[in-house]
Amino acid sequence: MKKITPFLLLIALLTTSCRSIKNMFDKQTPHEKYAEKLEDKHLDDTPEGREWLAVSRRALEDAQSIELPYRQNGYFNCEKPHALGLRFKANFGERITFDLSKKAGVRSVIFADMFKEDGKKSPLFSADTTNNQFSFNVDETGTYILRLQPQLYNGGDYTLSVSVGPSLGFPVSGSRANVGSYWGANRDGGKRLHEGIDIFAPKLTPAIAAADGVVTGVREEHLGGKTVWIRVGDVNATLYYAHLDKQLVQEGQVVKKGEVVGLVGNTGNAKHTPSHLHFGVYTSNGPVNPLPFVSRSIKTAPAVPAKNLAGSLKLIKPQKTAEGIFIKANTELIPLAVNSQGYLAELPDGSVVQAPFSAVKVLQQPVTQTEGVIRVTVSK
Hints:
By secondary structure, this protein is mainly beta. It is 12% helix and 41% strand. It folds into 2 domains: 10-167 and 301-373, Jelly Rolls (Sandwich), CATH 2.60.120.380; 178-288, Glucose Permease (Domain IIA) (Distorted Sandwich), CATH 2.70.70. It contains 5 helices and 30 strands. The radius of gyration is 25 Å and the shape is elongated.
């Protein structure tokens, strides 16, 4: 058994996430460093450089709403600057994983920057441009924006997939453990609501630490029976294990993810119910729904139909944007990406619109060459 020192306890309480630590020490993102390099070379005084900076800002204002999980195939034309913003909602406790892969032979750098849409679009983190996969734990339910932008005069094909999973491990071992009662269910005839989830499992099944943390409480209570409390710095929350048959940790003990903290039982007010673990997540603002933190499912997006994105499109049906702007038929569009629903395409004024497959026609285009690959767009 390991005891935590007061200094380590202070660190555990102050640590909120690896993301915030990165922002604390990294003064500039790769995108910001590149923009500074453009200034050093006076490229920001050229029309192309000014447009590169302008489209990076516009992508945040003009971000397109998507639903997670999500997948798209994209193409950035290197002949002019482009950027694409994707707006999505995420729940506290989820772990969002992005996989950004470029087509073989494409040498361009694509900057991936995450922002919280809180009125001023606060930057959260930037992916290392050498890695194809990056992720973040959602520490506040809300709306987020992912901005993708290649370097100036760079482009090519890429694929983006976004999956949704839990930020913590499942707190009960074994395949026979299943969630049977959820957050917000009525308790005591409607006098109170369920502030957690109940995970049913055979009696004496190990209850395990869902993350590395510090045991802050080992108690016996009227409602929860034998309980264990674990403070987890990575998600800035305290985990609550209740109705245990046995507690196998002590207050002040440091535990690692997967270590046994107790055995499932039915103590406290659960003495007349099947054995189960009541699992809760508490923050400084009170209890939150623990299911996104420990859900066993990883949600992935369906495949995307293969489309050539190097040409142009024409609207064959009038469209209205999410902001209520009317777009006439016969308007020519530049495709930026394709997902399972249709195209994300750029209008002549530079704004981006989502167009279903049934609303556009692919225009015949001459042969073009990009990144050493010959492309021919044909009418579909």
